[in-house]
Fold:
Amino acid sequence: MTNGEAVRRTRMVQGLAARGIRDERVLDAMQRIPRHLFVPPAHRDEAYLDTALPLATSATVSQPYIVALMMESLLLTGAECGLEIGTGSGYGAAVFAALVHELVTIEMDPVLADTATTNLESCEAAAGGCDNIRIVTGDGALGYPPGAPYDAISVTAAAREVPHALSDQLAEGGRLVIPLGGRRRAQQLIRIVKVGARLRRDDLAAVRFVPLRRSSDTV
Ligand code: SAH
Structure:
């Protein structure tokens, strides 16, 4: 890592705080994780801009502010079992894993899952803290029953509605953040909190994510 990258990352984190991110653990994690290691080489100069970056036809590296907002909204203390749907580059997984005890992350595209594995190995070598992540290749809409229940679930692709498997695999008191909406319709990032048999919903922000695919879709 060059000094320039560290300086740019500090500026990025100052920008997140200026936009209203208050959770110090989230800001610290984003200060520590080298986002440039997760960005395709052609976009490396833009790694510390607060913008989503292209990764593949149906994937982007999420915008830092949205990653921070999702993580802050999950109210993480460090003790949680977390689940992420949509590993993509692995950047969101690296941040999430820094904030929880252990993380399962599911990616449908096997090529992206391989790239994310390599990216997370580089991140582990450069910054540490990525050795509590398990990458699973498959349909994240089905969750991952062997690791359930989860205290915190983050979905990084937009769905029409909250997949039942995910709300079922949420622990009592657990939090789930997910963008809801279609490709053309406006999407809303929401948080679900499981309280007894009820799911309490809060609206967080207007967002734009790639669609959550179904197992039957082609990549
Ligand atoms: N968190 C990622 C963002 C990835 S974009 C990052 O920081 O880089 C959304 C990702 O969701 C894409 O990689 C896409 O392949 C994946 N995806 C879409 N539908 C999925 C599904 N049903 N199960 C698992 N992954 C899915």
